[in-house]
Amino acid sequence: MKPWMRVALAMFVVGWGANRFSPLLLVYRRGGAVSESAVTMAFGAYALGLIPALLLAVPIARRCGQVRTMRAVLALSAVASLILVVGGERMWALVLGRLLAGVASGAAFAPGTAWVKELSDGDSPGAGARRAAMALSVGFGGGPLVAGALAQWLSAPEVVPYLVHIGLTACVAPLVWNAPTGITSEARHDEAGLGGLSAIFGHRGFRFQVAPTAPLVFGAATTSFAVLPALVPPHGPSVAASGGLAGLTLASGAAVQPLARRMSKRSRHAIRHWGLAAGTAGFLLGAVTVRLHDPVVLIPAAITLGACYGMLMVAGLSRVEALAAPHELAGAAAVFYCLSYLGFAAPYLVAAVGHWVPPTVLLICAACVVAALIPVTALVRGPDSGGGPSTRRGRSVRRGTEGPAGTPSVRRESRPDPAWERKTSCA
């Protein structure tokens, strides 16, 4: 198995555990043991743990090493599921389990994305970003799809989906336990820490192309599987249908990523433009769904909004990879994920504004804003519109060396830098 696949599997498992809670919301609400406010609080606790972890995991991974960090992340993700199994329908267990799942996700996504990119050096440009996005998309989509089916047709719906995740984690953990590390995990931790969080905003391409479109990554996805089904409930087995809709949305995002690779060969802006076009079409289809109150239209709306999610995630990560220097990449990816997770506020925004603006009108306005971003982001020009600092680094790879704590590492040849000689690791 290729080294980057081992890291991608870890991201897949954490993404699976993060999103399998979505179809189970109906289970908890119908059970009656937990109040509606408690279920909403549990859903929001994920973001409460996620965003601080995204920012803090970067310096921790630099100092403690990628391997140690990912080991702890996998253990924490499994513990979150175990708490949800043991706690059942108790409010404290739901909130704590979701909070820890958010911490695990935040600690995995940004360092994991940088790690996959490092292990993909020598492959085609942007391969690392596409592979990280694919791993997350398949995990995000597979989690709710399987969890919804298990909760719908098997007994103990509050237990079985979590046990499946624990089993998956146990299978993947040995593959990641001694995965190869990249050179930036070993060096320049003193400069890298939170440096990437601020340095990335110095690029016009990030400020005016990535930042405005990043919230649409999960804004489009949550509109598909959280907003539209609440406005137009699907027919049939509702828990499985909810999970299926989430799975269809995120699977569509994964399916378009090979197409995004071909698009990127023609123009670095093509992925973003097509993603915004898909988002425009998806929001318009959502307006049609609400206007006709026809659950059948949820399917094409989910596919197009999922395509928007997948293309904009690849476009954002690819742009970050091109703009950020190697030692800034994990921090820059953390900024991108933080901005993208702002899209999870879409259900709350619709609920708040829905008292004054009909949902149909709100979705049409969203489509107009997304369509306007196509020409606006295309007008951005600047000295960093091409490859960023990362493209000026050496690309030759030397394999088979040893990293911290005896783990194999993958090193890239680069210009000498005295700061790279100051290395520390966690005891």
Average the pLDDT over all residues and give the rounded result.
81
Strand content: under 5%
Number of strands: 3
Radius of gyration: 21 Å
Fraction of helical residues: over 70%
Q: Output the number of helix runs.
A: 19
SSE order in H/E notation? HHHHHHHEHHHHHHHHHHHHEE
Distance between the termini: 29 Å
Q: List the strand order in the largest sheet.
A: 1-3-2
* Low-confidence sequence ranges: 184-193, 383-427
Q: Major β-sheet, in short?
A: 3 strands, mixed
List the helices and strands and how they pair.
Elements lengths: L2 H17 L4 H8 L4 H29 L1 H22 L3 H29 L7 H27 L6 H17 L4 E2 H4 L2 H4 L2 H5 L4 H10 L1 H17 L6 H18 L1 H10 L3 H23 L5 H26 L5 H12 L5 H8 L5 H20 L18 E6 L5 E5 L15
Parallel strand pairs: 1-3
Antiparallel strand pairs: 2-3
Helix pairs in contact: 1-4, 1-5, 1-6, 1-7, 3-4, 3-5, 3-17, 4-5, 4-7, 5-6, 5-17, 6-7, 6-13, 6-16, 11-16, 11-19, 12-13, 12-15, 12-16, 13-16, 15-16, 15-19, 16-17
